């Protein structure tokens, strides 16, 4: 039985927060991209991904992040990633972000208000 | 609803499209008009039923919980199976999409008619045959889809296998072993081991393209080819750095030249993929090294790959941590080259995340700690080290499916008395 990724969207101070519960892997990443599409087409220009309940995030998940950031246009990586922030990843997810080198490009926060304030 | 409309609606339904007038009229007599509002569920899957329905006007959704199966509108018939057989339950749920008018035919009344009107039985058989034909069509469709999927997996595997080396160079004083195991739904692991153009250094490459299937396999071929081509051609360029009178090649490529070759290779690969394929967001983690078999100096670049391990029988000596990010999506990425000396008895183990992320039936991960605990306990050949790891993996997985490619690359220095030449 494959685990599913549940996604709930909330909004605070004009920022859309995607609360993710479950693994972000090759099976679930399309669902995440589709939900992000929906939110961005609805006008969101600032997104926080709440990774508190994310059990696993491998290279497929990081690719999904890059795809989502890419939807915001912008020529440079810092421009694209300025629209997406990460909240409260587990130690293991942090390790993956560091190994693959994403930590130089995308901001990570432990606290939602800090994440929102950083835009 | 007047009875004339009922006759018309029945006549236009799929149930009675070829039935005689008398049958239509008889059914009109027993048909009961009912209404359901948009959003209302008429019946749920699993309930007992004793009526079939014809849609006079409106639209319903046939569904199984959240899974929508089909929409039906004017003239369509549903519920015939549970209505006709006494021990059948509803095979799906029906919910109105818009305000809908239905003609209901109750089992009791239908059965009553069957004995007096053989035409009614014919009409019902006609409908049931159509249902069966649709089911067969669906099953055929599914089978074709499964076959197409299996074919795609096979193509992915063939592409991948075609780009992996047939054999690994044998180098005196060194053991080099590789283990590669593709996942069923092939992922994007690749490895390469080859002599550089002047046969003085061994190139060691291990990489992992994100994603699965034919897409990942195709990007794997791109990365693998770019890396080999750039590394070999960069090497060839070094032949030409000579004095004007004598054309000769450097006897041992100095570490500085190895470093430059590695940096050029990674930069060219990164630049090409980021600029040509930026829309795909495809990347690969990459560990690429040049080993001088005479000196034991290993120069390497690690682009976002799981840190290879240097160890000997005394334990783990060093981890070769990333010196830059994954390759292919960050155009401004910078990479650095590092060096390490492999002494006699030292081993290098490089692996893909399919090893550490392998799952057992309880969805536990094999994990890095478990892998590291297998290293450096005793003297083993490179091949024996890999075999040990794979047998532990196999035991751990205990029959659980393999979701990601597994790649292991082992290199061991077995030199005894060596004269190091610098």
3D architecture notes:
The complex is a heterodimer of chains A (119) and B (422). By secondary structure, chain A is an alpha/beta fold. Chain A has a single domain (6-117), classed as STAS domain (Transcription Regulator spoIIAA, 2-Layer Sandwich), CATH 3.30.750. Chain A has 5 helices and 5 strands; from the N terminus they run ββαβααβαβα. A 5-stranded mixed sheet of chain A has the order 1-2-3-4-5. In chain A, β2, α1 (29-41) and β3 form a beta-alpha-beta unit. In chain A, α1 (29-41) packs parallel to α2. The termini of chain A are far apart. In chain A, 42% of the residues are buried. By secondary structure, chain B is α+β, with helices and mostly antiparallel strands. Chain B has 2 domains: 3-139, Jelly Rolls, CATH 2.60.120.10; 165-413, PPM-type phosphatase domain (Phosphatase 2c, domain 1, 4-Layer Sandwich). Chain B has helices spanning 3-11, 21-30, 80-84, 107-116, 118-162, 213-239, 255-276, 353-356, 368-373, 382-397; strands at 32-36, 41-43, 51-57, 59-64, 67-73, 77-78, 93-96, 100-106, 174-181, 187-195, 202-212, 284-291, 297-303, 309-312, 315-319, 338-341, 347-351, 406-413. Chain B is elongated and about 100 Å long. Chain B starts with a helix and ends in a 9-residue tail after the last strand. Chains A and B meet through α2 of A and β11 of B.
Short description:
The complex is a heterodimer of chains A (119) and B (422). Chain A has a single domain (6-117), classed as 2-Layer Sandwich (Transcription Regulator spoIIAA).
How is this fold's topology laid out?
The complex is a heterodimer of chains A (119) and B (422).
Chain A (H helix, E strand, L loop, with lengths): L5 E7 L2 E10 L4 H13 L5 E11 L1 H12 L6 H5 L2 E4 L3 H9 L8 E2 L2 H6 L2
Helix pairs in contact in A: 1-2
Chain B lengths: L2 H9 L9 H10 L1 E5 L4 E3 L7 E7 L1 E6 L2 E7 L3 E2 L1 H5 L8 E4 L3 E7 H10 L1 H45 L11 E8 L5 E9 L6 E11 H27 L15 H22 L7 E8 L5 E7 L5 E4 L2 E5 L18 E4 L5 E5 L1 H4 L11 H6 L8 H16 L8 E8 L9
Antiparallel strand pairs in B: 1-8, 2-7, 3-6, 3-8, 4-5, 4-7, 9-18, 10-11, 11-12, 12-13, 13-16, 14-15, 14-17, 17-18
Helix pairs in contact in B: 1-2, 4-5, 5-6, 6-7
């Amino acid at each position: 039985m494959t685990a599913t990724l549940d996604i709930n969207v909330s909004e605070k101070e004009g920022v859309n927060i995607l609360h993710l519960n479950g693994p972000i892997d090759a099976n679930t990443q399309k669902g995440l991209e589709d939900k992000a599409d929906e939110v961005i087409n609805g006008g969101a220009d600032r997104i926080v991904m709440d990774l508190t309940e994310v059990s696993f995030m491998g290279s497929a998940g990081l690719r999904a992040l890059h795809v989502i950031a890419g939807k915001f246009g912008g020529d440079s990586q810092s421009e694209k990633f300025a629209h997406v922030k990460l909240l409260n990843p587990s130690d293991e997810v942090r390790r993956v972000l560091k190994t693959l080198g994403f930590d130089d490009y995308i901001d990570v926060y432990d606290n939602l208000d800090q994440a929102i304030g950083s835009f | 609803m007047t009875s004339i409309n009922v006759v018309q609606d029945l006549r236009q339904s799929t149930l009675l499209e070829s039935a005689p007038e008398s049958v239509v009229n008889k059914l009109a007599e027993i048909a009961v008009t009912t209404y359901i509002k948009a959003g209302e569920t008429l019946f749920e899957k699993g309930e007992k039923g004793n009526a079939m329905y014809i849609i006079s006007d409106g639209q319903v959704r046939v569904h199984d919980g959240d899974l929508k199966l089909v929409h039906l509108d004017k003239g369509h018939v549903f519920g015939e199976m549970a209505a006709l057989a006494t021990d059948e339950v509803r095979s799906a749920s029906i919910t109105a999409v818009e305000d809908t008018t239905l003609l209901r035919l109750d089992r009791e009344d239908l059965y009553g008619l069957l004995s007096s009107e053989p035409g009614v039985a014919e009409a019902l058989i006609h409908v049931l045959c159509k249902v069966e034909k649709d089911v067969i069509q669906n099953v055929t469709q599914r089978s074709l889809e499964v076959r197409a999927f299996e074919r795609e997996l096979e193509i992915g595997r063939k592409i991948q296998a075609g780009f992996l080396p047939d054999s690994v160079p044998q180098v005196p004083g060194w053991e080099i072993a590789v283990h590669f195991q593709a996942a069923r739904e092939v992922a994007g692991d690749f490895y390469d081991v080859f002599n550089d153009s002047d046969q003085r250094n061994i190139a060691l490459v291990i990489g992992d393209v994100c994603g699965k299937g034919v897409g990942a396999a195709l990007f794997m071929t791109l990365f693998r080819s770019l890396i080999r081509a750039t590394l070999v051609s960069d090497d060839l360029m070094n032949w030409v750095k000579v004095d004007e009178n004598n054309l000769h090649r450097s006897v041992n490529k100095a570490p500085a030249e190895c470093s430059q070759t590695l940096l050029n290779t990674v930069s060219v690969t990164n630049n090409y993929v980021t600029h040509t394929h930026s829309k795909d967001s495809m990347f690969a983690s990459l560990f690429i090294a040049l080993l001088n078999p005479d000196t034991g100096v290993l120069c390497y670049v690690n682009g976002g790959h799981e840190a290879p391990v240097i160890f000997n029988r005394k334990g783990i000596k060093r981890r070769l941590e990333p010196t830059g990010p994954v390759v292919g999506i960050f155009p401004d990425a910078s990479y650095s080259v590092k060096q390490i000396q492999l002494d006699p008895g030292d081993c290098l183990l490089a692996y893909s995340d399919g090893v550490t992320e392998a799952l057992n039936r309880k969805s536990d991960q094999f994990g890095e700690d478990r892998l590291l605990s297998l290293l450096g306990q005793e003297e083993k050949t490179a091949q024996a080290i890999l075999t040990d790891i794979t047998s532990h993996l196999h035991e751990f997985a205990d029959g659980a499916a393999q979701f990601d490619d597994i790649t292991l690359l082992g290199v061991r220095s077995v030199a005894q008395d060596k004269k190091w030449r610098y």
